[in-house]
Amino acid sequence: MAKQKPIQSIKGMHDILPADQPYWQFVYKKFSNLVGEYGFEKIDTPLIESSSLFLRSVGDDTDIVSKEMYSFKSRGGEELALRPENTASVVRAYIEHGMSVWPHPVKLWYWGPMFRHDQPQAGRYRQFHQAGVEIFGDEHPASDAEAMFVALGFLEGIGLKNLMLRINSIGCPNCRPSYIKALKEYFKNRGKNLCPTCKIRQKTNILRVLDCKELSCKEILKDIPQFVDYLDESCRDHFKKVIEFLDEVKAPYSLDPLLVRGLDYYTQTVFEISLEENTVATEGVESVSTPGLTLIAGGRYNGLVELLGGSKTPAVGWAAGIERIILELKRAQVKMPEMRPAAKIFLAQLGDLGKRKSLVLFEEFRRAGIIAGISLGRDSIKAQLRIANRLKVRLALILGQKEALDGTVILREMDSGIQEVIPVEGIVEVVKKRLRS
Ligand code: ATP
Ligand code: MG
User: Fold this and answer.
1) Are residues 326 and 349 in the same domain?
2) Using one digit for the tens of pLDDT, what is the confidence trace for 143-154?
3) How far is the CA of 275 from the centre of ligand 2 (A)?
4) What is the CATH number of the domain that holds 374?
5) Which residues surround ligand 1 with Cβ inside 6 Å?
6) N or C: which terminal CB in the chain sees fewer CB atoms within 10 Å?
7) How far is the CA of 241 from the centre of ligand 2 (A)?
8) Domain that includes residue 368, residue range
9) Which helix (H) or strand (E) holds 116?
């Protein structure tokens, strides 16, 4: 038969190989422990939802929905999508399961893969993982602050340093119109120099212009009116209180008037966390700190539950990009804890009978809480003892043909090389004692 061409993984999709698993386990454990301590409960939602869920919540003129969503028709003709983010799904579940009658606040966390037809590059994939939290039913600024503390605590707790929290307020439907009016005024004469996408955004969703990464647009955005100057009284008061909380704990925050978030459903507080990237000072120019890739993004979304058919419920939450966080952990050379329990002894064997008996012994030791190294594929005792050496175990048990037949085993002290023959019967207790001494 002609050699088959191997099938490759799809662009933007990744295998997570064993060497990377310690990072994934470490981050998952730290995250789930932390949010558990803060009183969050886990929710899993399906990877597939109705497209309309995201059209209605995220908005059909966002990048996520208009350009990046994996949508398809099911065999039954339903319009479906692989979830591009999870807040909409959690809100759907909140409404569907009647959580509005649960004691509030309802605090949920999630972890799982998301799908976006993004342009793959470092820290940007088409299947990626997000971990996140959502707090429902609390409109107090303390709730915004709690969400941000958890986010900062998460990144700090896994060993990342130089965190940079940027925050802004994008008001509410009551004050947003006056800001949008000010923006329109501002772009009246400058609009012709905006990038083609922003020229369209200027008409469809002018707030998004603030988010533009094009240099030409950034230049125009320099003297833009700031939302904080247009907030109504309650939004201004809310924002002030959020900041007071951050001051209280000396959080590393800065106000970022250009921060608006790409999703439609945000109200009031929006924030992003990244690591500071220091641009090295060149002669005569001071070194500047710029934010690296965004690791965590979130904010308040008081209108979303209602928008998706529930009753009016204030809410705040965020999502973290796990692949990006792991990239940063590697860059910062944060050491991962050993994932596999270390082997305490090694089982070496010769021949079929030896192998069979070794497997039984392996299980006996495992039940007694002693992990054994074993290499059943190898027949040379010498090669097996080399592995035992590498595993740095104190004892090796050798089951040769003779021992396997007469119910004994050779117990070898690895350091001294001293060996003795002892009965298999009761071997677990003998080994336990030796390991203790
Ligand atoms: P960006 O402006 O970088 O595209 P976004 O606004 O689309 O970000 P959110 O929807 O707020 O991002 O998602 C929250 C977090 O999820 C991001 O801060 C990032 O860490 C992560 N994330 C988003 N898209 C991707 C992706 N394609 N690949 C990997 N991580 C991603
Ligand atoms: Mg994006």
Assistant:
1) no
2) 999 999 999 999
3) 18
4) 3.40.50.800
5) 85, 116, 118, 123-125, 128, 130, 262, 294-295, 297, 319, 321, 323-324
6) N
7) 30
8) 345-436
9) none
